[in-house]
Design goal:
There is one protein chain. The protein has helices at 3-19, 25-39, 42-51, 64-69, 76-95, 112-128, 132-140, 151-156, 160-171. The protein is built from nine helices and no strands. It has two domains: 3-51; 76-171, no CATH class.
Length: 190
């Protein structure tokens, strides 16, 4: 209940008490509550509705600035997502031995879509395998690696990393190791 509504209710109770000898205390309080609800203005209702947090699907969040602007606590899930994203980008820089001046957010707005796609691709790869960039860099350093792109090439054209990653996946077979039961073969040796 808002402060204004409480104040109106007290005033209505005082008025009803002064002019009515036949109403009980409970009837006065109930009538005052009804009058206070009726007197609530349309703008007061709209501001109360605006303060309510809209529902989002599970795992989706508003930007961090939205929570801060509305005076709400930032959900732990959003903080975890941000930390995972930062960790993935740092792992890419570390494992690919990128120069210290590497910038994920370009000055030119025309390049932003390509860099955003690269960031999302890097995060997705890191979530699948946190050693992925280390494996890629080892492969890319081989002089005979066809389609390999090093950080200098990726910096010039961020879209080339997805193609280089496909070349890496084609060149390096993924061997899934499975536990073999006694006397049974998994079909290949890992």
């Amino acid at each position: 209940m808002t402060t204004l509504k409480r104040e109106r209710r007290r005033k209505f109770e005082a008025i009803l008490s002064a002019f009515s000898d036949k109403l009980t205390r409970a009837e006065i309080e109930a009538t005052a509550e009804l009058l206070a609800d009726a007197a609530e203005s349309r703008t007061e209702r709209k501001t109360d509705e605006a303060k309510a947090v809209p529902k989002l699907p599970e795992g989706e969040y508003f930007p961090r600035a939205w929570y801060v602007a509305n005076g709400l606590p930032v959900p732990q899930g959003l903080i975890d997502q941000d930390n995972a994203r930062d960790e993935a980008l740092k792992a890419f820089e570390r494992d690919m031995q990128c120069p210290s001046s590497w910038s994920w957010y370009p000055a030119k707005s025309s390049d932003e879509s390509a860099w955003k796609a690269l960031r999302e691709f890097v995060i997705k790869l890191y979530q699948q395998d946190n050693k992925a960039f280390e494996k890629y860099y080892t492969w890319a350093r081989d002089p005979f690696a066809r389609g390999a792109k090093l950080p200098i090439h990726i910096r010039q054209d961020p879209t080339c990393f997805e193609y280089a990653w496909q070349a890496f996946r084609a060149a390096v077979p993924v061997v899934e190791t499975t536990k073999r039961e006694e006397g049974k073969s998994s079909g290949y040796y890992a």
